[in-house]
Write a structure and sequence with these properties.
The chain is of the alpha+beta class. Helix 3 packs across helix 4, helix 5 packs across helix 6 and helix 5 runs parallel beside helix 9. The protein is built from 11 helices and 8 strands. The strands form 2 sheets. The protein has a 4-stranded antiparallel sheet. It has a 4-stranded antiparallel sheet with strand order 5-6-8-7. Helix content is 41%, strand content 16%. The protein folds into 2 domains: 50 residues; 184 residues, Homing endonucleases (Endonuclease I-creI, Roll), CATH 3.10.28.
Length: 270
Amino acid sequence: MDSPLPSFLIERMKRWSPKEKEQLRSLFLEEKLSITDIAERVGRSTASINNAITRSGMPRQRWVKKLRMPESMTPALARIHAHVCGDGHLYLSREKDDYGYLKAYKHGYYRLRYGFGYTNLNRELIRSFMDDVLEVFGLTPLYYTKQNEVRVKSKAAWMLLKRLGAGGSRKWFLPDEIVQASDKVKIAWLSAFFDDEACFDPSGRIRVRSVNRPGLEQVTLMLSRFVTCHLTPEKGLYRDGSCYLVVSNTDRDKFLRLIGSIKYSNIKAD
């Protein structure tokens, strides 16, 4: 005895009458209902609705994220770049494509997700980062792990930050858009980067440790425009594969006045 056909195949074989096709066109194009809502209204499956729309050639309704791309380097974009180089990251993940109105028929499908994230225990820095992302890209970061990490999914933003040299502890760099920018943009980048990477030791020095000497050399050159600083060791790296950018205790107050800090705002310049 032959086994009965699956219900979804039986439904696909049902013909749409001219009246039903006209109702579908009205619901989809005029009332702009979703496929799920139309399926509930006419008593058919979402797969059947989707196939009918495809065969009829009706234009698809697309929901577009309100992403805006910056046309030039701004202090907010410079801070985002610095935070991604510091306590942030760019990510590329492979996720199951098992959502939407056709999820019941999707098995073994995957899609690549592009984005960037930022992790910090300082709530004020998290809020500042979220405000900058909203200002620059028009997107609101979502909390990923409790309240300490936020992430943004956007391939366009990922590609921009990647092109500008953000991300990768050993590979990040400062692009010409920041190196040759106004002092306001440079200060914004330096302040954000030092909030992530610097520590004020008991002697009053400000030190940044990194395994990326080429990147830190760029930072040193940019910071030296405002405050005297130096790299140690003078050449190469320490045995642990790191080097330090150091601002002496005599220049700490000048750094706080000219560059500023959110994380160390309780330390006042004289």
